[in-house]
Design goal:
Layout (H helix, E strand, L loop, with lengths): L1 E6 L5 H13 L3 E6 L9 H8 L15 H8 L2 E7 L1 H8 L6 H8 L4 E5 L3 H5 L1 H12 L3 E2 L3 E4 L5 E5 L3 H14 L20 E6 L4 E2 L5 E2 L6 H12 L3 E6 L11 E4 L3 H12 L4 E4 L6 E3 L20 E3 L3 H12 L4 E8 L7 H12 L3 E6 L10 E8 L6 E6 H18 L1
Helix pairs in contact: 1-2, 1-8, 3-5, 4-7, 9-13, 10-11
Length: 415
Amino acid sequence: MRVVLGVGGGIAAYKAASLLRLFTEAGHDVTAVPTEAALSFVGKATWEALSGKPVRTSVFEAVETVNHVRLGHEAELIVVAPATADLLARAAGGHADDLLTNALLMARCPVLMAPAMHTEMWRHPATQANVATLRSRGVAVMDPAEGRLTGKDSGPGRLPEPEEIFAEALRLVAAGSKTMDDAGRAPEEGPLAGRRVLVSAGGTREAIDPVRFLGNRSSGKQGVAIARAALRAGASVTLVAAHLEVPPPAGVELVSVESALELHGEMVERASAADGVIMAAAVADFRPARPQRSKIKKRDDVPDEPIALVRNPDILVDLVRQRDGEGGHQIIVGFAAETGDEGADVLEYGRAKLERKGCELLVVNEVGTDRVFGQDENSVTILAKDGAEPQHVAGSKDEVADAVVLRLARALDAR
């Protein structure tokens, strides 16, 4: 695959060298196109040594090959990492003042941009507007990672790790849904094209005091994989995310929550506008009845007070009840993390839960300390309200996600 690796002028440019190596070691033909500012951080010799190709930044170099047109026209993938605030602005504005922005204007292949900048720059309305503009044109823009920045402060603005960018780039190429047509538009294709899908993911955290919380082992990997699969299927995706240990996929509308009550509020508010709802979040069944405003102290002179718990609302049941009360059209998919016991096995509990919840599909998996939560593999059984034969799916969480999304698409078509 012919890859153009654009490198913006930020301190994170050094990470792009590792990204280049990932592509070349996988057998891809990579041309590095740094901006002039990027060369202040990582020199031309590094890019040439790693790519095995001459490095150019200006449209006035290799003019005899019409390089500023040829690069973008021949590319099968363009990745920009880091994409600085300035580079995002120039790309959104259609500027063509260096070789990289010319290549971006010529591209009719998948384009992935991985931003990196200071938190205030990322959150600035101008940057957010530029990101929205690029995404509306079919460009995949990853959200930056959170963590330590150049100075002592922390926040969203770190470049995602090279392995994450590499994986997202390959998924983008495999999906093909972000390839632009000759007018620069993303095509309408895929089993969920034109549909709106609402997905929840991650584990909720229920505050005990400002320091401690009740939580669960969910990493959010399966919910994130489902959001990614829905995007590949052509849907417009909103991801309501509790605690995640993996980054959300580029291209979703991200809504961050912490507690079950917050998740409940966002899902109920947004469900009516969706065609499909997938409740993949691991929601706490209970929360502390009286979370403390200050940290609970350990004391030897008084006995420890028990923590009283109250039940959280059942989000899945409330979504079904709201839809039925409004005469809505949504297909609702639930998840059931189950363990068997002497009373019944996992599937028996799953069937009972499907009957009780009232959703159209229920994805049942057996969980444990070394199963499902935090793992890259999953094994599930998809149960259907209409009595269809249970479908067993085992493999990576992306493979499970594809199966769930396809079942959602088929249910929407049937309805």
